[in-house]
Amino acid sequence: MTTPTAVHTAPARTHHASPGPRFRFVRRVVLMIGPVLVCLGLGLSYLGAFHDPQPNDMKVAVVGSSPTTKVLAQTIKDKAGNGLDVVTVPTRQQAREHLLDRDLVGAFVPTPKHPELLVARAGSNSTANAAQSIFRMVTDQQGVPLKVTDVTSLAPQDPNGSSLFFLLITLSVASYCCVLVLAPVADTLGMRARAAMGLGACLAISAVGILLAGPVFDVVDHSRAAVWGMSLLYCAGVFAVGLGLQTFLKQLTPLVLMGLFVMLNLTSAGGLMGPEMQNSFFGALHSFWNGAAFVEGTRGILYFDHHGLGSHLLSLWLWLGAGIVLTLLAARTEKRRRTVSTQQSLFLPSPCECVHIHEEEASR
User: Are strands 116-119 and 106-109 parallel, antiparallel or unpaired?
Assistant: First the structure.
């Protein structure tokens, strides 16, 4: 009885034939499509966002209320075209207030011998430079030098105001890496455990981020607790979205997360180039994407007396809310899959039953 059992059980272990060389070659080729898509996506996003910076609805002002001032504003508008929105502001003080309220990117004070341009470099250094170039052409025609005054006070260790963007990169990459690290244990750890681990990681990532930006490099020289809170909210949103998507996307998760939080996120954040110097697509993303909300929100805390902070916080909370909804749906989906798998296993014969069936067939 034992000899027929050995004869019949051996073929059962070799039922699935190993893939041939052609299949393995095709599989390797398919795997290499991923890096090609990453190259295509990064090229389209970064070159599309930064390759040809031009003013796009960039709002500037000419200070004064005289007819000459209005003629100058209209002349600048006519020469610049649709990319520039030129208005007039009665006084220099009002122009300064508009800059601090982020309603303007530059305000030109025309005087015969000492013309002045007011800018807010903390909002966007590249946009301030663009405004400076535009009004320098005006003063060059008049044959007088242009005085440029920054109405904001950047941190001494961050003269270009770009460090918040690099902090965003640090938080983004670390946060979605948490999702990738937890992906291999998705079958053994429940959603609640993975979410708890991810929240702990977000706490640690945001703490490390503010430690580096604050005491270590001193680019955030005040309001560090508020910036840390923004960092934690941003990290939690990125992780929650990624954790929820991982259940549905599986192997496509890294590519999709890179698209969301690198290709579209970093290019529209306004860290290196303000939306006023980008095309309409990235300018539109800037209005609601979470990276832009983090950068502009932290700028508001540090340099603009919390102006507009409420809308940026709302955007970050909405992203976190979307991530929580995705995570709850993913948990429900995983539970349903486990239930279906358990039910299917009840109708499959166990290994012992298979051996018993083979023995009975052999005896016949």
Answer: antiparallel
- DSSP structure string for 256-304: HHHIIIIITTTTSS-SSS-GGGS-HHHHHHHTT-HHHHHHHHHHHHHHS
Three-state DSSP state, 59: strand
* pLDDT-based confidence at residue 8 (cuts at 50, 70, 90): very low
Q: Which two tokens stand for residue 248?
A: 């549905």
pTM for the complete prediction?
0.85
**Among 4-8, 15-19, 130-134, where is mean pLDDT lowest?**
4-8
Give just the sign of the alpha carbon dihedral 326, 328, 330, 336. negative
- Residue 344 has a pLDDT of 72
Question: Which uninterrupted H or E stretch holds 60?
Answer: strand 58-63
Predicted local confidence at residue 23, as pLDDT: 67
Q: Within 90-162, where are the H helices? A: 92-100, 125-142
Residue showing tokens 């244990």: 185
Distance in angstroms (rounded) separating the CA atoms of residues 191 and 257: 19
Measured CA angle at 50 (ends 60, 266), to 5 deg: 95
Return the amino acid letter for 347. Answer: F
